Each structure stands twice: as structure tokens, then as C-alpha cells.
């Protein structure tokens, strides 16, 4: 499946690309549940090796309720990216509204221990309109 990355942020030579898709087969609007999957590509355009240490998400639903999610690595991994290296992963986000948004940042660490913050671009979560 070829994905088009719709949202991009570049910080300190680290590019974060996001492609997001609504998953109707995982959603149950009648029960107040909507689900999206997002594909993240990390690209190290700097001249130093970096290791992903943590993620920090701000997830906002259609009512304006904010959920802050923080944790080590991504999907159980703390990948190391050499200069020019990339890392891809896929995860998902459930909401109790048919729209919302996500944004945040990753913390990477250089070989000398210096932390580097890389922005995750804002991206909307929007279920397609349905007719009844």
C-alpha cells in the first residue's frame, strides 16, 4: 500500500512525516467510537546519529477534550537513526467523536547525550460524513 504523507515537520534536521487514514472497519459510530491509523516516517537529515527516546502527544477530540500521552520510544522501540537513516512505524488512535487532532514532539538523544526535540506536525482526524 503506497501512502502519501500529508503532514511534515522538520526540526534540527529531523523530518517527521505523517499519513493518516480513517478506518471504518474499526469504527462503531453507533457506539460513539471512531478509529484512525497513522503512519509516521522519521528521517535523520542531520550529520549526527540520534536515538529516539520518547514521544509526547497532544490528542484533542471534537469536544475540545485534550489527552496528553507520553512514553518511552514508539510502539515498543527506541530506534537509532544514522545520518540519512529512516524509521517507519504505524499506530492508531481511537476517539469518542468523529473528528479531532493530534500533534506533539519526539525527544531524540545524540551520541554525546544531548537531547534533541523534533516536532510532530499537527494533523486532523476526520471521519467522512455519512448519510442516513
UniProtKB/TrEMBL annotation:
Species name: Allopontixanthobacter confluentis
InterPro entries tied to this protein: ApaG-like (IPR050718), ApaG_domain (IPR007474), ApaG_sf (IPR036767)
NCBIfam families given in the database record: PRK05461.1 (NF003967)
PANTHER family associated with the record: OS05G0170800 PROTEIN
Superkingdom of origin: Bacteria
ApaG domain ranges (all copies): 8-132
Gene behind the chain: apaG
PROSITE patterns listed in its UniProt record: APAG
Name listed for the protein in its UniProt record: Co2+/Mg2+ efflux protein ApaG
Pfam families: DUF525
Amino acid at each position: 500500500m503506497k501512502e502519501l504523507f500529508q503532514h511534515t515537520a522538520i526540526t534540527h534536521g529531523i523530518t517527521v512525516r505523517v499519513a493518516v487514514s480513517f478506518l471504518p472497519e474499526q469504527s462503531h459510530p453507533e457506539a460513539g467510537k471512531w478509529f484512525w491509523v497513522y503512519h509516521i516516517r522519521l528521517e535523520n537529515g542531520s550529520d549526527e546519529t540520534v536515538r529516539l527516546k520518547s514521544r509526547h502527544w497532544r490528542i484533542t477530540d471534537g469536544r475540545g477534550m485534550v489527552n496528553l500521552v507520553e512514553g518511552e520510544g514508539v510502539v515498543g522501540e527506541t530506534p537509532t537513526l544514522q545520518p540519512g537513516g529512516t524509521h517507519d512505524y504505524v499506530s492508531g488512535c481511537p476517539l469518542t467523536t468523529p473528528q479531532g487532532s493530534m500533534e506533539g514532539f519526539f525527544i531524540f538523544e545524540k551520541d554525546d547525550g544531548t537531547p534533541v526535540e523534533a516536532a510532530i506536525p499537527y494533523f486532523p482526524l476526520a471521519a467522512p460524513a455519512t448519510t442516513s
